[in-house]
Amino acid sequence: MGVIANTWFTPIIATITILGVISAAVTSGDTALRSARLIIADFMNFDQKPIKNRLLIAIPMFAVTALILVYSLARPEGFDMIWRYFAWGNQLLATVTLWSITVYLAKNKEKQWYFITLFPALFMTMVTGCFLFVAEKEGLGTVLPKPVGYGIGATITMVCLILFWRWRKKLTFAQNPKR
């Protein structure tokens, strides 16, 4: 980033660009930690109005974050590994969201609207499932042959599809018992 900013832009624009990139990361981290704190508090039914309650959740989260940062700085490949699994976690979140929308559409909409999100959910299930078993850097892909890893990912995907169809069949029967 510094090379591009310094060769393509004037010094003032380069400085603004670099500061913008840094502040984007800081604000993203701040938002992520705040969201995580609120999710944990909601999950545990923990009121977040008193500062004490906020700190009871935030301090352990900050400690874990600090340990992750120390790890990423202590090992040359640390940041690369953390980033890889962060990206995987982000894709896993997208997968869960797609499945949630699919279930919502199957439950609340007439006709077959759930197919709109079912196929992307299946695709993302395959992608996120396979990653764990074929990743070559510090993953099971260093131990398992790729065909086995892809087979496991495909099995996870098929199990999810079968579970969805079974749930859908029960839902259809419950909504129309005369069938």
Structure description:
81% of the residues lie in helices and 0% in strands. With 179 residues, it is mainly α. It folds into two domains: 1-74, no CATH class; 77-179, no CATH class. Helix 1 (2-8) runs antiparallel to helix 2, helix 2 (11-43) packs across helix 3 and helix 4 (78-108) runs antiparallel to helix 5. The mean pLDDT is 86.
Task: Note the overall shape.
Answer: extended
How many separate structural domains? 2
**N- and C-termini, Cα separation:** 63 Å
Per DSSP, what share of the residues sits in E-state strands of 2 or more residues?
Answer: under 5%
Counted by DSSP, the helix tally is 6
The helix/strand series, from N terminus to C terminus, equals: HHHHHH
Low-pLDDT parts are: none
Largest sheet: none
Number of strands: 0
Q: What structural class do helix, strand and pairing data support?
A: mainly alpha
Mean pLDDT: 86
User: Which percent bin holds the helix content?
Assistant: over 70%
Radius of gyration, in angstroms, nearest whole number: 22 Å
What's the helix and strand layout?
Blueprint: H1 2-8, H2 11-43, H3 51-74, H4 78-108, H5 115-134, H6 146-175
Considering the chains and any ligands shown, give keywords for the structure:
extended; 6 helices; mainly alpha; 2 domains; 179 residues
Q: Briefly, what is this?
A:
The chain has about 180 residues and is mainly alpha-helical. It contains six helices and no strands.
